[in-house]
Amino acid sequence: MTATVPIRLTVNGRLRALPVAAHHTLLDVLRDDLGLTGTKECCLVGECGACTVLLNGRSVDSCLVLAAEADGGTVLTVEGLAAGGRLSALQQAFLDTGAAQCGFCIPGQLVAAHALLAITPHPVRAEVEEGLAGNLCRCAGYEQIIEAVLRAAAGQAAEGGAGRRAHARPDPAATPDAEVAPQ
Ligand code: FES
Ligand code: FES
Questions:
Q1: What is the pLDDT of residues 57-76, one digit of tens each?
Q2: How many Å lie between the centroid of ligand 1 and the Cα of residue 82?
Q3: What is the CATH number of the domain that holds 136?
Q4: Which residue's C-alpha comes closest to atom 4 of ligand 2?
Q5: What residues make up the domain containing 160?
Q6: 59, 80, 101: which is the final residue of a domain?
Q7: Is 103 in the pocket of ligand 2 (CB under 6 A)?
């Protein structure tokens, strides 16, 4: 029988209390227990950044954090970036620059970029490169990703396209996260 431990997490602004297997990672719990599949599972050894989330404001590889270690913490996943069902300026910039190709790395890239901009609101290119150094893109869309972050930082996300798009999606604060998960 698998030993479980009770944990409490605030995930994208919602308090979640649940028992988790002692050996399960934060990634396991986000995807399998909470249905937040925007956070991707790939290398599982901290190499690719696909599983990046913010834990207590810090960017972490959720595949390397035991869920029990995160007990009491605050987690932001890619689903939490679209407050009120509206894409953030950063997400819109990724769309406008065509940064998402296959899209697999994009949730991690977005969360890492969100963390970067929270600390360095107006980064130069080298700072963006360094901030995203832990996030690999097999489609090699690095130029568009970097451009997107720089555009968002410059407040230009609404330019050069149809503008910021409102989505008729439910308020995530009032709806289970799994129902508003983008993928
Ligand atoms: S899946 Fe966590 S770093 Fe690759
Ligand atoms: S868009 Fe395909 S891995 Fe980055």
A1: 999 999 999 999 999 999 99
A2: 23
A3: 1.10.150.120
A4: 137
A5: 89-170
A6: 80
A7: yes
